[in-house]
Amino acid sequence: MLRSRPLGPFVTVAARRSAVVASWTLISRATGLGRVVVIGAVLGPTFFANTFIATNVVPNIVFSAVAGQALGLVVVPAVVSASSRGPRGPRGHAAELLGGVGACLLTAAGAVTALLILASPLLAWSLTFGIDDPVVGQQAQRIAVLLILLVSPQVMLYTLAALAAAAQQAQERFVLAAAAPAVENVILIVIVVVAGVTWGTGHEVGGVPHGFLLTLGVGSTAAVVVHTGLQLYGAARCGLAVRPFRRWWREPGALRVARRLRGSLAVPAAPMIGMYALLIVAATVPGGVVVVQLAYAIFQFPIALGARAVSIAVLPDMSGSYERGDRAAFAASWRQALTYATVTGLPAAVLLLVLGESVAHVLASGEMRSPDVIARFAACITVVAVAQLAAGMHQIGRQGLFARIDVAGPRNASLALLIMTVTIAALALLVTPGTMRLVILCVALLLGELAGAVITLVRLWHAIRPEKFADPAHIAVAVIATAAMLPVVGVGWWLLDTNELGTAAEFGVLVACGLLSLAAFTGAARARLLHLSGGAT
């Protein structure tokens, strides 16, 4: 097999699709990281920064309670199936399915948004209860209530955006679906910078100008409006316009998808609830939410480029293979996904473990540039460097199970993740507020993802048998190629550790080290694959 396909999964259609998704996802994640960096630089390590960032996460958490990432994982296989049969022609049947599912989800999102508005005082209290000064705590709580009200429409907007993105993925159109979030991030970055220039930086909750506060709240929702509009345009362009219709319950396909989404509710909701628990505890440390969100953005970076990109690209093929009953093709697609996730996860882990302190020093800018903040950030990066590996395995395992219309496995994995994350986050409250508390929160993230990964991979292994679960030869190539990076990474660490460099120079060394390390990885991987294939080109 290796002789007939010398470059294995690296030259398959799935890999090329993954590269397209990864390229645009790289831009999206880079702007997402830049968004948190800019917010931190403008707002600083303050309780107001904690409140603003945490309340901006609330719509995503509530959206996850409606469907979240499970929407794409459930809708894509359903649309692929609908496109292959139906008396009205392939896209007509699929469009009706999308319209029914859209009406169902928007009804649910509207109801949940109303509950969010009603529960805003309780949510605001949960995000500010750890502030010791009662006056500052009350001021932060009032600001949190206002911000939650301003961002609450985002729940319905994200629901529409996710449905439109799923429609594009089902038609194997990945570019706009992956790129649209970057537009949202860029718009919010501009809004935060303009607000900082206009009203100043580093405000604490007791001295935030009203115009500053309203600009941030309204601006963040306006950015999501643009994001949603782009996704809807992309869906319409590929022939699957999202047009919700009344009496959606009369569409049998929509009812089946709705029931499947209801059964998979815990899959996206549990991790987001766990994340909310982390933010609650992080908010007890001034600027703690900024640090945790920065670490989380870095944690998401390799996952988005690896596990998420490849699973999005491979999911239609895996769903089609399962629909046809082709076990061998399904297993082959799964092995490609597993290999590619390993290829992206291992180098990222090495780079972050070795260069984490320098990464923290470069990203902690503006009001966040203090020794204490940098030390906390660097410690958190060390933990998430390992956590992203576990999360990548969890991600592809979960999507592999969804392609098989298996909801129970991902649900059990997500519940295990939630229990582990919340338990360890609660234990973090027992230590003194500071660096150790934030590090324990990142450990909670690591162990939660590890629990989810074990459950999904074991279940998928049982489902794939007797087909081969993994490709040991190609995974070994990834390990060997990662080892080939170590000399380059070591030189980069030495340069950064022994020289007093400015931020720009330090950033340049980091970029050069990263690029040279990846070049070493790619060269070693290609050489090893050619060796395995007997020198074929």
From TrEMBL:
One of its GO terms (biological process) is lipid translocation. The chain crosses the membrane at residues 36-55, 61-82, 94-123, 143-167, 174-199, 211-236, 265-288, 294-316, 337-354, 374-392, 413-432, 438-461, 473-495, 507-525. It is a multi-pass membrane protein. GO terms for molecular function: lipid-linked peptidoglycan transporter activity. It holds the Pfam family MurJ. It is found in: Cell membrane. Keywords: Cell membrane, Cell shape, Membrane, Peptidoglycan synthesis, Transmembrane, Transmembrane helix. The keyword Transmembrane helix applies. GO terms for cellular component: plasma membrane. PANTHER family: LIPID II FLIPPASE MURJ. This is Peptidoglycan lipid II flippase. It comes from Saccharopolyspora karakumensis. The lineage of its organism: Bacteria, Bacillati, Actinomycetota, Actinomycetes, Pseudonocardiales.
